[in-house]
Amino acid sequence: MNVEDMNEGTSEFERHVRELLNDSVEHMPAAARSRLTQARYAALAARPFWQRSLVRHWAPAGAAAVLAVLLLVAPRGEHAVVSPLASAMPEDLELLADGDALQLSKDQDLDADFYEWAAGEAQGAPAPSLGT
Amino acid sequence: MQAFATLPSQTADLLPLGKARLRDTTQDGARALETFLAGVERKGFRIAQIALRHEADALDAVQDAMMQLAHRYAARPPQEWKPLFYRILENRIRDMQRRRIVRQRVMAWIPWQGEDDEGGDALEQAPDNAPQPAVQVESDEMMRALEQALSQLPGRQRQAFLLRNFEGLDVQETALAMKCSQGSVKTHYFRALQALRAKLGDFRP
Predict the structure, then answer these.
(1) How far is B105 from chain A (nearest CA, A)?
(2) Interface pTM (ipTM) of the complex?
């Protein structure tokens, strides 16, 4: 007899063992039954709060409501507080990361007249004379 | 337009219904778990008692298993509860058996063991080979022999045999509870059956 044969049907021996074990459950002493009942109630009380209450049903709706409020209240338009980094263009960031750019900003202090002239040119204003 | 006019009152009627339904769902979940625990606690206790040969330890093991199931897995589908419960219970049984072995080693090593007044604790914690007074079966001798034979089986064989034969789990559920393949369950069961037959003979009433 192999494993498969023995697992297929239930023999007289197995049935008898099962009956004996079931009898022992039926005739369990009252003290043990009482203790098991207490343990069951303790286990039910040990369930997490969110499983015992209606909270678990309302939690997704609450989260959606909070998200909606955040989206509505979040500042938008001209008054929005936007991080300078978030609004920076990629080329600005490259400039910041570039070593030459740092040198440029230092030179800017030394050549203020030139940049004043350049700004005026860009705005279409008459350029101040550079002495020529 | 009249349809719109009646809408608020209809909604007002529906809201308490929905709330009541949600409360019912929560209560149904608790009721389902309670029914489940009430259905497995006695067999779980007997399985733990056979493995541990100690009533108080067996009750503790079952209580821990019920607590863990309720605390961690109550939200899982009810059809998964039984294999999960028996997996947790077996883990607790093994923990207790290991702790008992360590305690026995420590007690054997302590030189003043037996001279202390508290030596009674070791006796209380020792495996109880006598039949439990509470087990009032018709044939006590057979039950005692069966318990003895089952407790002497290797843990996996005993687990496979009791879950399949006594608790009535199918091979798949037993494999889930034992965290092994279905083939292993069949092998453990086969070996357990062979060992029990060898020890108990025909074992007829």
Answers:
(1) 30
(2) 0.72
